[in-house]
């Protein structure tokens, strides 16, 4: 299809079809297509200055406005920002910061994680082999740890944390490990949330060994999960503490670095890293160490500032919680009406909802390429969906502005698509 226009949760093709967008540009169009406030901010900024390169001029008013707004939604311990173009570029720079801050060479990531397609971010990615195949050798010093994918876990919760300790004893010594990076909820890996206690245990392990914790909030951030940042479901927000403790860690119990992109700018190319000032000392990272021609572009900054205002003013985190609950309950009801085991799991937080298909007869994993036909059957009914991960899963990732009526439409279309494909198996 060729898209001619978009408004809210809908795209219109050049031949007049209206498509319900439950993918939102892989989660980028957080405030819906062409939100009037974002459009107005972009138009106004384009008439003032389009590009004032951050390594040349230092800053521009759109960047200053954005930093003011970021300080109001990011954890208070993260007071230093670097802006880039994409999530992968931001991940690469987060790893550079961690290595420079600690003087250590290695990074640990998790099975099923997706961190980007650049050579550095690709090495951290293990959601599917397609992102790496044919491009090796990958960046050295990366180790992949087991992730607690509880639907398929063979061990109880301590297992993954014990596996990390074992990795630190056998593969990457703590003194060689700069950072552990993870998505608070696996994105491309299947929308898998961690079990209670896992992120808190991971934070304690990092503190024990002086390892930095990087939260890749590219897909989970900007209100997507019903809170501003996905990690806030499991880790404390130091800015909400009643009184700071003198013994509290500098990280406030949250991540040491946070990567954001996608929904932060409603589809405009802007990403960034938030960290603590002491992790980027001038003697280790002098001016010019980090940068990029288009990072912090003025129009993209204006879009991001407007996006933050819309999410806050229109209470889109609340809408994400409410519509996400409606969507999950509808999917669970659908699962109960289908052959047992056909839908193995409905999961997620807010408007980050995944459905995993299982075997119809034995409750195991679905046959390969079981999810893709359902995506196609939904598209044939004018609804866009995405698959996710190496297992047979689909993901619902609509704009945060979606209405109850639009969720009902999505549930109806998906139900028809699942029944059609299941009847052909």
How does this structure look, described?
Helix 11 crosses helix 12 (404-424). The protein is of the alpha/beta class and 425 residues long. The protein is built from twelve helices and 15 strands. Strand 11 and strand 12 (352-357) form a beta hairpin. The relative contact order is 0.17. It is 35% helix and 16% strand. The strands form three sheets. The chain has a seven-stranded mixed beta sheet with strand order 4-10-9-8-7-5-6, sandwiched between helices. Strands 1-2-3-13 form a four-stranded mixed beta sheet. Strands 11-12-15-14 form a four-stranded antiparallel beta sheet, covered by helices on one side. It has helices at residues 24-27, 36-46, 54-57, 61-73, 87-102, 119-124, 158-170, 198-209, 298-313, 316-337, 371-380, 404-424; strands spanning 3-7, 10-13, 18-21, 80-84, 106-110, 142-145, 177-182, 212-216, 257-260, 271-275, 343-349, 352-357, 383-384, 386-388, 393-396.
What's a concise summary of this model?
The protein is of the alpha/beta class and 425 residues long. Helix content is 35%, strand content 16%.
Q: What's the topology here?
A:
Blueprint: E1 3-7, E2 10-13, E3 18-21, H1 24-27, H2 36-46, H3 54-57, H4 61-73, E4 80-84, H5 87-102, E5 106-110, H6 119-124, E6 142-145, H7 158-170, E7 177-182, H8 198-209, E8 212-216, E9 257-260, E10 271-275, H9 298-313, H10 316-337, E11 343-349, E12 352-357, H11 371-380, E13 383-384, E14 386-388, E15 393-396, H12 404-424
Parallel strand pairs: 3-13, 5-6, 5-7, 7-8, 8-9
Antiparallel strand pairs: 1-2, 2-3, 4-10, 9-10, 11-12, 12-15, 14-15
